Amino acid sequence: MSENMKILDSDTREMITQFVSEGLDSLDTNEPYVEYLREYDNSEHVNAIFRVFHTLKGLSGFFDLKITKKVTHEAETLLDLIRKQNKPQNEDTITVIFQTFDFLRDILYKVSTDFTDESAGIIAEDMILILKDCLEKVKNPINIEDYFSEDSYMLKEPSTEIVEEVLESDSNSGLNINLDDVNEEVIEEVSNSNITFESEFDDSILTDELLDQFLVNAFELIDLVDKNLIELEKNPDNTKLIPETFGAVHSLKGNSGFMGLSEIEDLAMDMETILDSLRSGDLTPEPHIITIILSNSEIIRNLLDTLQEKSSAHTKKENKYIESPTPVNTNEIVEISETPKTENKVQKSPIAPVDNSATFTPKEVDANAGQHSAHIQKKDIRVETIKIDKLFDLVGELITIEAMVTNNPDLIGLDLPNFNKSANMLNKITRELQEISMSIRMMPLEGTFNKMKRLVRDVSIKMNKKVNLLISGADTEMDKNVIDEIADPLVHLLRNSVDHGIENIEQRIANGKSEIGTIKLGAKYEGNEILITIEDDGAGIIRDKILAKAEEKGILKVSPDLMSDKDVFKLIFEPGFSTAAQITDISGRGVGMDVVKKNIEKLHGSIDVDSIAGKGTKITLRIPLTLAIMESMIIRIGESRYALPILAINESFRSLNTNITVTMDGLEVIKVRNDVLPIIRLHDQFDIEPDSKNLLDGIMIIIEAKNKKVCLFADEIVGQQQAVVKGLGDYIGKVPGVTGCMILGDGGIGLILDIDGLLEMSENTLLLKVS
Amino acid sequence: MKYLVVDDSPTMRRIVINALKSFGIEDIIEAEDGIDGLNKMKDSKPEFIITDWNMPNMNGLEFTKAVRGNPEYASIPILMVTTRGLKQDIIEALQAKVNNYVVKPFTPLVLKEKIGAILKT
Fold this sequence. Notes:
The complex is a heterodimer. Chain A folds into 5 domains: 2-207 and 272-312, Four Helix Bundle (Hemerythrin (Met), subunit A) (Up-down Bundle), CATH 1.20.120; 330-368, no CATH class; 385-443, Orthogonal Bundle (Helix Hairpins), CATH 1.10.287; 448-624, Histidine kinase-like ATPase, C-terminal domain (Heat Shock Protein 90, 2-Layer Sandwich), CATH 3.30.565.10; 629-770, CATH 2.40.50.180. Helix content of chain A is 51%, strand content 16%. In chain A, the strands form 5 sheets. In chain A, strands 2, 3, 6, 8, 9, 10 and 11 form a 7-stranded mixed sheet that branches. A 6-stranded mixed sheet of chain A has the order 14-18-19-17-16-15. A 5-stranded mixed sheet of chain A has the order 20-12-13-22-21. In chain A, helix 2 runs antiparallel to helix 3 (43-62) and helix 8 (151-173) packs antiparallel against helix 9 (179-193). Chain A is elongated. Chain B is of the alpha/beta class. Chain B has one domain: 3-Layer(aba) Sandwich (Rossmann fold), CATH 3.40.50.2300. Chain B contains 5 helices and 5 strands; from the N terminus they run βαβαβαβαβα. A 5-stranded parallel sheet of chain B has the order 2-1-3-4-5, with helices on both faces. In chain B, helix 3 (60-69) links the parallel strand 3 (48-52) and strand 4 (78-83). In chain B, helix 2 runs parallel beside helix 3 (60-69). The two termini of chain B are 16 Å apart. In chain B, 49% of the residues are buried.
């Protein structure tokens, strides 16, 4: 309301004056019709009078004229009943209506001078009682005597009846809501019609913590609503979804009412009305009805987002919580679950270097059917993420210190069997601690994936395409911080798939495809990475089209002949690239896809595009499970030490002269079994003096990523250590070939090598030499 | 984008129009009831309709049905303004294919979001 007043503020007074004169006008114009109520066939006049009250009620809400609103509400109810009865009314009723007209005139006069109707509060109470009596009499004309004998009883009657009515209608349909809730709602309704006003909420009750909890809960509820509605649209017969959805909306309404968030409360009430009509069969779950409810839920989500921004701006202290099975929108949420599942995840989570080749391919589930898992009740507690982050930092420190103790230079040369035994145990415990603390931040992708269903639905309706989204691996878990970062890229990629990938219905039919396009969104573990794939069966990417476009946009850097299909396809992620012949407002502005690339690179991830013209496109995102801790191999070159992610290492060996060849271009390559691999001299790369430049002296390490291999040359392997990855700091910036640094066991600093970067560097050298 | 605001109450029209103007929408035409609305549509084609439910002569529901029944207008988004509590009205309005409805009294924010949500789909 206050917001409303704010906007109107400049001419609120003028508006109210207009409202008063309009109201008085309408009272005067329609007053003569009241006489007609004693006649037969009076419906036209009843409607006119009804409209007087109805309009006044509607307008009074805008000017915060609560008393006018309540009186006109009662009057409207009375007229509605008379309208339904459609029969002559007696003198008493007519008198009451005239009285109401007079009363409203008085109120409007007051409003014209005071700009409020508060002073009419006491007399309004009488007016409302009179109207209620009248309503009863119109309802049960025979029982008039009872009214005189049992005055108070009659006054209570209406509310009891409403309660019964509501209870009856609810139990009839088997709607499963708490009766207490229903009563509350009715009581609220009843008290609204009395002259007691909802007192303004005492701000002190609405603590930030309460608001946070409300938000967390509200997002959960609204997610559930969205999910159920999309499900319902696909399976309109699955009517058991409606009560659950209704229940969620009902709770949301109750909570937001309690928080004094009337806008959300009203929207939730709208949704309730529609859901109730769906339940009773008055409406059917057709797409346009579902769209309306979904729009309302989206509006609520927007309002919640705004609230959340406000609340986090308000509280400097980050009051983040960790929790919830479907955490989705609240960026602040991770989950701690105490189910045995966690333990599996620790094993599964490839941070544990046990089995780095293990991949998990969860079976593909149709998005429609993949609902059951969402309802598993978890035993969880809410913890502020700030505490989890602290724990995580401390574990990181502990791991470093553990390495510093067990690798302490003072111990060199000493024979310490007992110490070593204890050190081994310490090592084992710190690892376990690390795994557990990692698993705390792991969350399933399910929440993010579920949101994509909604997105695909909306975009496909808008584009007038039919798309079925299949989701697999929604239970794949990732570091919460990483999940937050990939939501946006996924949105862009999926929009792009629907917009550019899937052809329109006519084209699909012409190409002999099913008119319903399929997009598969999947996630699975591979090594210490997660692979997220978006695969459509659409038109595919046409190489020449991309190249032509890239040339036109001036973003072609290498001669097209040297570019593989994959390289060409990757051009779509270049800034300023857009192939859509026509710019749509969904995708195709040439922004978005480069943002995808940027976001993924920020996570040290990578993007691959595979596409077959006419068959479809598959985009693969490879994202490290976590950014924080990594099992590493420490190597030495001269005085400097570097760390390599152990999972990237294929093998290491001392080379024999016969394996090494120098090509005509001066490129050193090594033959390992059937592969011929380029050699990267790390001392050249980083410009340091090694022990020896002779390839036969040092050690060869084969690293592999994205199906490419190179051979690194270093002086020696020093050992293996858990690396707590630290950034290089902004003042150093991005260093080619290095992702970050770590603290070594002896307290020194080691640089962590960037495998992808090294592979790219080797390719560039290759290209340079070739050209 | 041209908006048509249909309401028998001048105050209500003003409330809606003021809100629209606060969103930067200037191209607005007004009509007093459904019949007036249909007449106005002949001259200037609106691209978005905001209509009241309860009006004399031709109410919002009849108006919606008339708009939807005319192939020329059928795809124009309609946002209905209504008063809470009349569930049957809401059902009828939804069945008549309004794109969404907003309950009085509404705040400009909610009106804006409702319009935005309709334009998005």
